[in-house]
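Q: I have 214 residues here and want to know how they pack in 3D. Can you give me a structure?
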Amino acid sequence: MSADAPPAASLERAWLLRALLVLQAPRSVFRALREDDDQSAHARQEPILALCVLAGIGGVLGTTVAGRLLDDPALDNVTVALWAFLGGAVYGVAGYWIVGGFVWGAARGLGSLGTYRRARHVVAFAAAPLALSLFVLWPVGLAAFGSDLFRSGGSDSGSGGELFDAAQIAFVGWSVGLLVVGVRAVQGWSWQRAAATVALALAPVALLVVVERL
């Protein structure tokens, strides 16, 4: 047990660093995901959980439901914060399993022999920009618009709000781009094949987003 502890601890530290490095040098991080043995997979559990929860919170804050929460006078800012944390955690973990399954299925359809576990891990690390948005974008939005972000109308309904919405879309696009990079890196595929995999995988998600915003 003592002989195995240092390598395990070293692996865990390496994957914690890669959770940040994926924003700067994604190809090297995703290539490391080719190591899909149990020890490597266990070492990246904590950063994957953190990325999923943080990305989930960033994701639910950008929904139309969040944008109307304070229309109900019975709710307050504390309720919004609790809703975002709990709902984001559920949203992020569910997305990890569901979107991971979509990516795995799409990749299998295009000839991959990779595991469902590896597909989930690629999705988690590709969600890093959404997690980053929670610390970069949302503090700016709250400083500019305050609680108007969570009610209909208000100061975020003009050009400033449109710019904020565009920034949210940019973070989502960054995550989608990372997912393409990740699929390509772990599979060793062409850009076209990787992009086709991601397009097939995200088509159901895009449909749900469109329905949610109607």
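Q: Anything worth noting?
A: The two ends are 56 Å apart (CA to CA). Residues 1-6 have pLDDT under 50 and may be disordered.
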